[in-house]
Amino acid sequence: MSKMIKMENVCKSFGKLEVLKNINFEVTQGEVVCVIGPSGSGKTTLIRCLNHLERITSGQVFIDEELVDARVKGKDQLKVSHKKVSEICTRLGMVFQRFNLFPHLTVIQNVMQAPLLVKKTPKAEAEKYAMELLVKVGLEDKKDEYPSRLSGGQQQRVAIARALAMKPEIMLFDEPTSALDPELVGEVLEVMKALAKEGMTMIVVTHEMGFAKEVGSRVVFMDQGSIIEEGLPAEIFSAPQHERTKAFLNKIL
Amino acid sequence: MNEIDALIKIFPKLMQGSGITLLIAVVALLVGAILGLLLALGRLSKNWFIDKLCFVYIWLFRGTPLMLQLLFVYYILPKLFPTFTFDQMLSAYIAFSLNSAAYLAEIIRAAIQSIDKGQMEASKALGMSYAQAMRKIIIPQSYRRLIPPVGNEFIMLLKDTALVTAIALPDLMKITNGQVSATGSTFMFIPAAIIYLLMTTVFTFFFERLEKKYSVYE
Questions:
Q1: Which CATH number does the domain housing residue B158 bear?
Q2: Mean pLDDT in residue range A138-153
Q3: Do residue B122 and residue A104 have CB atoms under 8 angstroms apart?
């Protein structure tokens, strides 16, 4: 199986604050990696460094075994053009904690916009695929609504469809259920489960331990900018090796 | 009844004057909006030089009186550069457009910056370029927020056009003033005030409608 993602010695600082400390992290095709840990542990920053929403301070990032970012002390070691970043982003779908749907566009326009604009997909084709995706997330009847008319759970499902519309190889989820009312969490997790079953490679930053246990092929525990421990969900949840992992799991389970 | 007779006689001229007033305000708003958008994007640019250049433009045109700018374009510019000799109407278009661009630039910049930064992130994460995200996602969302301050700016412009009297353009104010001095009666100020009010009222409603139209998704 090919390495979809590899991060080597990645560090990230915001000013003096070190958010990621020497991260080494790999994701193989078809894996569902759940990243857990307390707030401020660097989980979100980790995935945001993959699609250049944040620039790493030092280290190397590979996607599909291709070097896409290499920096030392904030200086580029590799010239990455805007075009290249855009191309990387089309291969990585991202779902945000606060959905970030485009409020001025209807549901189906939200899903179609990027394929039309970035991939220059013909309109009929983009619309057809957008409809298929809306069926998949169970929102075909909402296609002409504006996002403000939808519940949080529905909005997040549209956001998942929007990301899938670019036919990404990997999906990044940044706490996709954290902004939802408890009764809406399930519908979003169902969509994500279905996606995992289809073999989508996923990195999921989450506080949903049930999801991590059931769907995750690997769990990564982060604390204070470092990966403390990783392994099969069963191992991490039943027999954590590290004190900090134990303390964290005790607190939340 | 002398006043009424005088009013009826002068009415076509008042209408012509109102036309000039409207024309200058509308041209200044449209040209100013395009220039203002470019200036706003310049102010948001990561390029230090472009940012500062636009800053200086705005600083200059907001920091000096519009009257002075108008006189500069009409009287002084041709003396410095004879190629830039414009008639009164064109001078008014230029001065009012350049001036409103500075104000509109700040309005547009504020509206763009008020859009949640998650919108740009989501656009970029989908592979859009900065320009694509601006054009299709960010700027369209700023329209609704732009309308109230732009409406305000337009109404100010409409009234400020009275300054063109200084370069002897026969706008509504100039015609009125002329009539007042000719007849010695200040009565003519009343119809002028009513015409100004009518114009601003129409545009107030127009901008309100526009705002409603762009609020459908909220």
A1: 1.10.3720.10
A2: 96
A3: no
Residues B148 and B159: their CA atoms lie apart, in Å, by 17
Degrees, nearest 5: CA angle A73-A76-A77: 100
Q: Which ranges constitute the DSSP H helices of chain B?
A: 2-44, 48-63, 66-71, 77-80, 88-113, 117-125, 130-133, 139-160, 172-183, 189-213
pLDDT tens-place string over residues A91-108: 999 999 999 999 999 999
Which of A100, A148, A149 is the mutation pick for testing B, counting most B CBs within 10 A?
Answer: A100
Are the C-beta atoms of residues B31 and B99 closer than 8 Å to each other?
Answer: no
| Joined tokens for residue A122 | 């013909």
Chain A: give the shortest CA distance to residue B170, in Å.
Answer: 44
Tell me the average pLDDT across B118-141. Answer: 96
Q: What is the pLDDT of residue B111?
A: 95
| CA nearest to A58, candidates A46, A71, A45, A69 | A71
Domain count, chain B: 1
How many of the other CB atoms lie within 10 Å of CB of A122?
11
pLDDT at B1: 58
Pick the residue of A51, A98, A99, A102 with the most B CBs within 10 A to test the interface with B by mutation: A102
Domain with B42, as residue range(s), is 2-215
Q: Are residues A53 and B124, on separate chains, in Cβ contact within 8 Å?
A: yes
Q: What is the separation of C-alpha B150 from the centre of its chain, rounded to a whole number of angstroms?
A: 8
Q: A7: which DSSP letter?
A: E
Question: How many Cβ contacts (< 8 angstroms) between chains A and B?
Answer: 72
How much is the pLDDT for B36?
97
